[in-house]
What we know:
68 residues, alpha+beta, three-stranded antiparallel beta sheet, 3 strands, 40% helix, 21% strand
Amino acid sequence: xxxxxxxxxxxxxxxxxxxxxxxxxxxxxxxxxxxxxxxxxxxxxxxxxxxxxxxxxxxxxxxxxxxx
Length: 68
């Protein structure tokens, strides 16, 4: 079944894995992986590069990067 929902890259440096999950499943996928593989420790995460890009876009949108 095709969907227009964006997918998000999830990486686990300890397991050396990367996968993509639908945006609506990110929280559950991370919890499921970290609970099952790492005793709940938050090892797997949204790709750090994507998190940085999103933070930059939000800061720009809020005007936090504007010159004073």
